[in-house]
Amino acid sequence: MREEFIVQNKGLRDRRQRLLELTDKGRDLERQLTADQRARFARAYRDAGAEAVEGFRKVMLGIISRDEDRNRFRRPAGGPR
């Protein structure tokens, strides 16, 4: 918080909660830190091919227990993610 990468807000229902959120500066840092990982994932998916990626997606959907989490992993209607 001192370096302004995150801000802290009180919870809406429980004011004892401390909800942390990235600032624009924090989002920029996160993008820089994860750029290499995103490139590695993209390369791995591309190298594995569509059939392997779809198999991985099915396995992950089988592991994820909560519907709201599972819905974030599903393909949007009309095409690939």
Relevant terms:
81 residues, 12% strand, alpha+beta
Describe what this molecule looks like in 3D.
- The chain is α+β, with helices and mostly antiparallel strands.
- It has one domain.
- The protein contains three helices and two strands; from the N terminus they run E-E-H-H-H.
- It has a two-stranded antiparallel ribbon with strand order 1-2.
- The longest helix is centred in the middle third of the chain and has 25 residues.
- The relative contact order is 0.08.
How much is the radius of gyration in Å? 18 Å
Low-confidence stretches: none
As for the number of domains, it is 1
Structural class: alpha+beta
- Mean pLDDT equals 87
Quick gist of this model?
With 81 residues, this protein is α+β, with helices and mostly antiparallel strands. Helix content is 57%, strand content 12%.
